[in-house]
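Lecture notes, structural biology module. Today: joint structure prediction for complexes of two components.
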Amino acid sequence: MRIEIWSDVVCPWCYIGKRRLETALARFPHRDEVEIVWRSYQLDPAAPTEPTETASEMLARKYRMTPAQAAEAQGRVSALAAEEGMRWRHEDSPHANTLDAHRLLHLAAEEGRQGELKEALLDAYFGQARNVADHAVLREVATGVGLDAARVDEVLAGREFEAEVEADVDQAAAYGASGVPFYVVDRKYGVSGAQPVEVFSQVLEKAWSDAHPVLETVGGGEDACGPDGCAI
Amino acid sequence: MRIEIWSDVVCPWCYIGKRRLETALARFPHRDEVEIVWRSYQLDPAAPTEPTETASEMLARKYRMTPAQAAEAQGRVSALAAEEGMRWRHEDSPHANTLDAHRLLHLAAEEGRQGELKEALLDAYFGQARNVADHAVLREVATGVGLDAARVDEVLAGREFEAEVEADVDQAAAYGASGVPFYVVDRKYGVSGAQPVEVFSQVLEKAWSDAHPVLETVGGGEDACGPDGCAI
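The predicted structure, tokenised, for the full assembly:
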């Protein structure tokens, strides 16, 4: 079974949804046969690589709220993050571009470390309010989960994996996703948004039984031949 | 899509069922993406390689009928064969062992000629009443569909593919098949017996739509982030 997850590094519901799916997976008896693939999605492709404001300030400006109002608006998400026991400094997180982070996630997939890098990037952004567009930060986080430093530098210096990021974004659009997180199980079932654990559990069970069918047989052997002869 | 068909070379309903499936496939828009695999099944593993009676005589003896009664009992099958426009001399077909024929069908699968050999063997037995246990007959039929004569001789001289024949028979039992023809589509749908064309058509459609699902999505994007921000 394969779960593809479209998600952005700076998307709070993506991080909350990640914990909920992890809870559902921990309860799923066939969890060892589930592969997770992280797909790229950029909420704001125009976000700067050198941030000038926090995500909250950007929000307040965009929606003409005071910083206090913007912080309050994010209160429900922060409360849920607290419930999940996550460290959460989102109020200080910078409004930053994620293209390079996604390119490194594709590199990590090649090296079998994508899950580790995804978690580390989300924690860097939400738990530590770091600038995930900054190459020094990206380098530290990526090598911290075991990626080869020379390859990380090489990817960051060029445009490698840009086409892969774009292909992911296009695929999300093809699936009709208008936001993230967006989950696709076995290219058959979609889940839009950070749904409750129970919803993830149901989809996992459904996809599993689809992938492991019991043979449904039509016909009871009339017009057939067996060891005792043929139907006549 | 893959259709596995358990069938014996001396099974009249298998031949009739083959024509019916072919008709369903001819009407199926995705027929070019369907692969057929012929699986081995022996109705009578104890049948002789040097026949001493016809299949009808064997039946008459086994069920204490007169030859005329046995011929009459096969009347419905013969009528259906005539309807399908098949040449049919089944009343003269010998009661013969099919192990070697099945071994050659496995060889033919390796050489990409299995469909051709299956048809040729069925016609040799039902259309020409030939002894499909005889090595000279088997050699002629197999090379007639393009199999390499040296490989055919090599296989016939030894026990090659016996394990494959046995594995096929075991798999049929595992699926709960008690006779043939027995069809399995994508290891998901079974068809037992030479069902009407419409039944094959329905199963083909069902398997196709299973294999080419439209994404079913749960959730409408609540608790998600999009280009205009995050749900709060």
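Point to remember: Strands of chain A lie at 2-7, 35-40, 182-185, 189-192, 216-218, 225-226, 229-230.
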